[in-house]
Each structure stands twice: as structure tokens, then as C-alpha cells.
Specification:
The chain contains seven helices and 13 strands. The protein is an alpha/beta fold and 232 residues long. It has a six-stranded mixed sheet, sandwiched between helices. A four-stranded antiparallel sheet has the order 8-9-7-10, covered by helices on one side. The chain has a three-stranded antiparallel sheet with strand order 4-5-11, with no helix packed on it. It is globular and about 55 Å long. The model has no long low-confidence stretch (mean pLDDT 96).
Length: 232
Amino acid sequence: MSDALKREAAARAVAEITSGMKVGLGTGSTARHFVELLGDRVAQGLDIVGVPTSEATAKQARECGIPLSDLDALERLDVTVDGADEIDPALNLIKGGGGALLREKIVAAASDAMIVIADSSKIVEALGRFPLPIEVNRFGLGATRHAIARAMRHHHALGELQLRTTESGEAFFTDGGHLILDAFFGRISQPEALSTELLDIPGVVQHGLFLKMCRKAYVATPNGVETLLESN
């Protein structure tokens, strides 16, 4: 998928931002286009404030001249624009491939609407082809890992559970200082039940299932950008 099409999808989302809005700023390669284009509009006089979902996004937003705040000061946002690793027909998502899932979910949940920008490779019939990121506390990792593996067996996972590492082979740490376990399901037939089961595990901080949160998606395809809407 060409970068130009991803940028066009991001431009569709930027066009929905108007002065006075409080905007959640997503993380990842496609969201970077949104932040850059939003910065261009801020330079032209658009009066908004952004809340970044990662330290990397915060750095980019500052470089683009976007005024920033946080949820301690704002409490509610008008919209969050972010990417996704998978999108199913109901606009349920898997997110967290970039390791920012906890902050992304906090910001999205504090928003009146969530818009996703992605390319057509992220569209799936059922979630689970992409490994599900699960953010966990470092304390008690072995017990947490065992409990997650049990939940995976209960949900007929086809793959393994792996600790995410960096390119140098060291454990990957999130901005919040947590670890990520990537769970390879293959297909998640009951995402709501899985969500509940994972969050009932004490060592699980959050997971990458974003259920009933996205209202609209701009998807870059070889034939242009398609708009997907939540079905009520």
C-alpha cells in the first residue's frame, strides 16, 4: 500500500478537525501522517489542543507546533484519531503493535469519538490474525503468563504467547514501564468474553482489544480511500 494513500486517509481525518477541538493523537506509522498534516493546519491558524498517546507522538507533535495538554487538565476530548493493527466488520480493533496500547485506550475512552486511519491490509473478517498485545506488570510475570496461557487455551488459540523484545533481544518496555506479551490466537471468536477474562488476571494492565470504541475508519485501498462506519 502506497504511503500516499495512507496520507490521503489521514487527510480525511484531519479535515474533520475544527478550531476549538481537543484531539487525541495516535501512535504509529499511519498516525504520524495525521499528526504531520494536523501540524500543517495548526501553522495555518487552526486552534486545537492535542493529547498524545505516547512519548514518540508527543515529540513529533511538539516538532510540528501542535499545542499539547493531558487528561488531568482536559478530562474529555472531542475525538481521537489513531491507527489499528486489525479492523473487523463491526469496527472492533486490535491495537498495540507499537507498544502504546494502554495510553491509546485511555485516550480513546476519554474521547467522544474515535476515528481510525489504516490501509486495507488491516481489514479482517475476525480479529486474531495479528497477535494480541497484552500489557502486563513486571511483578509476578511467570504467574501472569501462566494465567494468560490458560485463557488462550480456553479460547482455542492456535499459537504461542511470546514476551516482546527489542531488536537487540532485550525485553521491550512500554512508556509506562510495563512489559508486553503477544498472544497468537489465529482467530478470536468471542472477543468480549476474552477481554473480560484477560482483565480478570491481576497482572494484566490492559490488552489490545478495542471493542465498540471506533465510530469511523478511513481505509486506504488501491482504489482510493474508503469510509467505514460503525453499524448500530
